[in-house]
Write the structure tokens for this entry.
Amino acid sequence: MDETMEKVKFIERRLLFADDLKNLCRDKKLYMMGDEECLGKMLDKCKKSNITTEDIIEIAKDIHIYSRLPEGMEFTDLCSEIAGISHSFFERIIID
């Protein structure tokens, strides 16, 4: 390994944009039983600088509460749909 690489750490970050999540819900006909206030609170969960697996599950639970999932869609499918619209990237961090 290159000596400089020993002083570098890489981390993965995941972002989820509220517009993408709102479009997913609209396109899949989800969140049809929630009002604007509830929808706004759910979309606020996208404001984090790093969306974790646990965050995706929490968002999916929120969507599930206010939705009738399409036939054949399981909760895990919903989680995968949310993960699929997220944006992952890697950052290099220099270790002192």
Q: What stands out?
A: The chain has four helices and two strands.
